[in-house]
Amino acid sequence: MTDRALGLEVSGVAVDLDRTPIVRDVSCAVAQGGWLALIGPNGAGKSTLLRAVAGLLPHRGDVRIDGSPVGHLRARERARLIGYVAQNPLLPPDMTVQEYVLLGRTPHLGYLAGPGERDREAVRRTLTALDLGDYADRRLAQLSGGERQRAALARALAQEPRLLLLDEPTSALDLGHQQHVLDLVDDLRRTQDLTVVTTLHDLTTAAQYADRLVLLHQGRVESAGAPAEVVTQDAIARVYAARVSVTTDPDGRPVVTPLRGARN
Ligand code: ADP
Ligand code: MG
């Protein structure tokens, strides 16, 4: 890790759901302005870990943002620091896109104060950045899956958090919008020192955007490090029970190609 302050430090985090251990003694960290991707097969505990870090699940262990433990923060302070988008966010169907994204500003409003010009400007900027400018007055029920996913992301970005937690943020997006959204997040972390943690099930994409990967398996950290250290043919074959070939792109990042089984 570099000399930069840590944007997120997770130490010995463990989560039980219905008395079953789901996340077990996970420790990982990422620098301020860094991008950490959680990878691992279905059921590895990625979403559960992300929810624990977001403060949405009781857990053991310690979570620090920009060096400060979040356990002691009041809900409102935590909401200012952490933006979280669930894997399948539930959106209020009758709300317009604009109203919904404006909710992201709630933790910044004074008590009893309504949104001001700065809040509305943050919403406009975010809608434009996410290619939703024409949908501002559309009700959420009347959006496609990909548009809904971008609206959920817009709410988290309008919040202007220090830590952005995104659970499979591109699962409903076409290729162009996937790249657009990931490039936008990448730009924000570079220009605003926003720390980013995503789960991404596409390993090649995870390796292209994240500077650190954590491979989770059965709730534990199987390996962690730079993409080329974590995404190896052996590790992917073992943990995912998958046939893959791992090659390297011109930037030295791993590219994972699935291989079909023997033909009869
Ligand atoms: P991932 O996001 O890596 O696919 P999750 O964190 O969603 O995995 O889930 C991890 C495991 O926890 C899964 O095996 C899932 O079935 C299990 N799980 C999720 N919710 C509960 C629950 N309420 N009680 C028991 N097990 C659960
Ligand atoms: Mg998940």
Automatic annotation (TrEMBL):
InterPro entries: AAA+_ATPase, ABC_transporter-like_ATP-bd, ABC_transporter-like_CS, P-loop_NTPase. Gene3D superfamilies: P-loop containing nucleotide triphosphate hydrolases (3.40.50.300). The keyword Plastid does not apply. It comes from the Bacteria. GO terms for molecular function: ATP binding; ATP hydrolysis activity. The keyword ATP-binding applies. Pfam families: ABC_tran. Transmembrane segments: none annotated. Residues 8-243 form the ABC transporter domain. Keywords: ATP-binding, Nucleotide-binding, Translocase, Transport. PROSITE patterns: ABC_TRANSPORTER_1, ABC_TRANSPORTER_2. This is ABC transporter ATP-binding protein.
